[in-house]
Amino acid sequence: MQEPATLWHATAAFATLRPQVKGEITADLLVIGGGFAGLSTALHAAEAGLKVVLLEANQIASGATGRNAGFVVPNFAKVDPDGIRATLGEANGNQLVQMAATSADLVFDLISRHAIACDAHRSGWIQPAHSETALNRAKDRVRQWSAEGRPVEFLTAAAVQTLTGAQGWLGGWIDHSGGVLNPVAYARGLASAAEKAGAHLHENSRVTALTATPNGWQARTETATIQAHKVVNVTNAYADTLIPGLAHSFFPLKVFQIATEPLPQSVRQRLLPGGQCVSDSRRNLFTFRFDAANRLITGGMHILGLGADARVPKAIHRRMAQMLDLPELPPLQYAWSGIAAVMRNFLPRLITPAPGLIAGIACNGRGIAMTTAMGRELALWATGTPAESLAIPATAPAPIPLHALMRHAPNALLPISQWRDRIESPAGLGR
Ligand SMILES: Cc1cc2nc3c(=O)[nH]c(=O)nc-3n(C[C@H](O)[C@H](O)[C@H](O)COP(=O)(O)OP(=O)(O)OC[C@H]3O[C@@H](n4cnc5c(N)ncnc54)[C@H](O)[C@@H]3O)c2cc1C
After folding, report:
1. Is there a single domain that holds both residue 261 and residue 387?
2. Ligand 1 neighbourhood includes 206 CB (under 6 angstroms)
3. CB-based contacts of 431: which residues, under 8 Å, 6+ apart?
């Protein structure tokens, strides 16, 4: 399979393809999936002294890891500390809140510890509010995350305008521990760090079967058999039928991204002069950031799948120009899409189908920091920590009822979200 044609693949430093796995191999830990979650698991488990083999069906970062917007966001889209504790109980909730709160610290720490060149900037993540309700929620989010000791701040409408260069939002908040990076370069850096720590990584190596054995698990690919004591499956929304029921445990959400050609310095100085990333409070999110060469990047979703690949990039391109008051439509240079796995409660989940086998999903559209942190948890499991003691709740597989129908719900409900966003927004900001 060819590398995805994303901005990030085109601009990250070249990486040589790793060899396909061949022959009979043994390992303490087999990691299935070469995204942030798999790479972070492999790195942390290898650093802990395990013999680790990671198998990726395509290339490292060919899933959501290479297709996202590169926003490092240390919180969840829909749930904050109070809600997490209410859902999981005080003790488990505290663990997950702590994991989320420090997840961007982990990303930027790994980048500096392993000297990963990925255009990373810890410039902060901004969430402007599009409505009075969202503004009140921003105040509450600041209250909750500052109680966790996080570097967060409420922003007035004027402050949002100064930081973003765009008009109309009612205020918002910033988490200064977030930031931006080139996700493909970050993933490739994690892969090299994992190899330096002793992990064996293979590309074009799809696992096609998993069988329990007296000593653990046997995995098969077209060209190899791997015997491992433990297996971590982190195939995210790209899960196939390897673990029965896994692909039915989440909503697969297709998200589109675009990047313009590099923009003139005059635009760059007006918009996001501090280089932050922005995801506003709408249900139909409006997001934007610049890359290192001043390309403007935004994203969006589709309602109808038919023809979406041609239609949606144009629509989100126009929306970006309108939202940011650009005098003309800047030329489009890249358009791509990826699939995010979204859980019913919007929180990360570990799934334990059988002893010695665990699957992890921490995507929920905010996965750079969360899946990196989940990888560290999964490495703890691989070295002997019981699943129930980890920061992420672990459960048996729980397929979503009527999944064949329900999987379309996030897209089908988009027109209602757009309508609600519009009626809540003051005039001039309802686009
Ligand atoms: C368009 C888009 C924009 C996003 N923007 C952001 C953002 O700005 N910030 C943020 O924090 N998050 C963002 N996300 C979410 C984030 O990208 C993901 O949460 C994260 O990359 C998930 O990483 P992962 O390792 O769990 O899965 P993935 O990166 O999806 O990796 C799964 C891998 O498993 C492999 N695989 C599948 N089956 C097999 C098999 N049988 N054998 C071997 N390998 C297999 C796949 O090939 C794939 O490479 C975005 C997501 C999308 C789709």
Report:
1. no
2. yes
3. 319, 322, 323
